[in-house]
Design goal:
The complex is a heterodimer. By secondary structure, chain A is an alpha+beta fold. Chain A contains three helices and five strands, in the order ββαβββαα. Chain B contains three helices and seven strands. A five-stranded antiparallel sheet of chain B has the order 2-1-7-6-5. Chain B has a two-stranded antiparallel sheet with strand order 3-4. The chains are: A alpha+beta, B alpha+beta. Strand 3 of chain A pairs antiparallel with strand 5 of chain B. Chain B: It holds the Pfam family Sybindin.
């Protein structure tokens, strides 16, 4: 007897990490990842924050050849950290904003356009959290409109 | 489409093989100051550690950082995806890191540029046709490669060079 597993593209969870490495938002939208308690998510966010920084410093790509000699001393090239991570059961897309906030999106490996999805989450964050006058910066996000807008965008009916 | 480096770690978390095809700690070629030109240089300020030693320290630091990174990522993936989930690779804006672990907890890590696809089969082949053939089956190589003894033999290195050149 055959069991078919229909793989569909689905968003499992979204985590938002502030620029100090602390978790400020964590929500699961579909089952598929292991159930972790809130403490585990905090530890995970801090660990990933550190790994993201290390992944920038182990960049092996040779620096671009410079056409003219640098003015004072050679500047180190701008490097980025982990943008995407693949495992057999999920894919993690990390978008780091210019202010140092990291958006971690956990999806199934088949989910296309994860970059577009995470940018849209950032836009929703900007609209409902950043523009909220009562939100304290770098603190945990407790904004209901944000949660509703996010659920409307990420949860498949 | 290029491969930057390959690292092999054994089950005792030691780096037993390193191979670099690009040197990112290469010293800058020309540094001109207002007064004159300094070539190939250690900095003009008095520095007790010679440049060559500093480069070697940076290279061994790289291996340690890479091991720490994959160890933590592997643990994170197991936590999130279940005990049968495997960390496969990650990508930054500049490079990709590919990971392959054998049942004997030997870890092969390859850093490449962004234009390569899935290197899992490549890493599997490096392990099966080069490492197992030339290192494991070598009667002169010890079973435990403490600090890399016995791994970097001629056949393995030559085979690896030819293999990488043929896939690039």
């Amino acid at each position: 007897m055959h069991y078919f597993t229909i793989t569909r593209s689905v968003v499992f969870a979204l985590l938002i990490i502030n620029k100090a490495g602390g978790l400020i938002f964590n929500r699961t939208f579909a089952p598929g990842l292991q159930k972790l308690d809130s403490n585990d998510y905090l530890i995970l966010a801090g660990t990933f924050h550190g790994i993201h920084a290390i992944s920038r410093s182990i960049n092996p790509a040779p620096p671009e050849p410079q056409t003219q000699p640098p003015a004072t001393h050679p500047r180190r090239p701008i490097t980025t950290g982990i943008e995407s991570l693949e495992s057999s059961h999920f894919r993690l897309t990390c978008y780091q904003t210019a202010t140092g906030v990291k958006f971690l999106l956990f999806t199934s490996p088949e989910q296309p356009n994860t970059e577009v999805v995470v940018r849209r989450c950032y836009e929703i964050f900007g609209d409902f959290v950043m523009k909220n006058p009562f939100y304290n910066l770098e603190m945990p996000v407790r904004v209901e409109k944000f949660e509703r807008a996010l659920a409307g965008y990420l949860v498949r009916p | 489409m290029s491969v930057y480096s390959l690292y092999i770690f054994d089950r005792h978390t030691e780096c037993i093989y390193t191979k670099r095809w690009t040197d990112r700690h290469a010293l800058p070629a020309i540094r001109s100051t207002a007064g004159g030109a300094l070539s190939n240089g250690s900095s003009s300020t008095a520095n007790d550690i010679p440049a060559a030693t500093r480069r070697a320290m940076k290279h061994s630091d790289d291996a340690k950082l890479i091991f720490g990174t994959i160890f933590s990522l592997r643990r994170m993936v197991r936590q999130l995806g279940g005990t049968d989930d495997q960390f496969l690779s990650y990508r930054t804006g500049e490079y990709k890191l590919h990971y392959f672990e054998t049942p004997t907890q030997l870890k092969l890590i390859m850093l490449t540029d962004l234009h390569v696809g899935n290197m899992r089969t490549v890493l599997y082949q490096i392990w099966a046709t080069l490492y197992v053939e030339y290192v494991v089956k070598s009667p002169l190589a010890p079973t435990e490669h403490a600090s890399g003894v016995g791994v970097a033999n001629e056949l393995f290195e030559g085979g690896l060079e030819r293999f990488i050149v043929s896939t690039m």
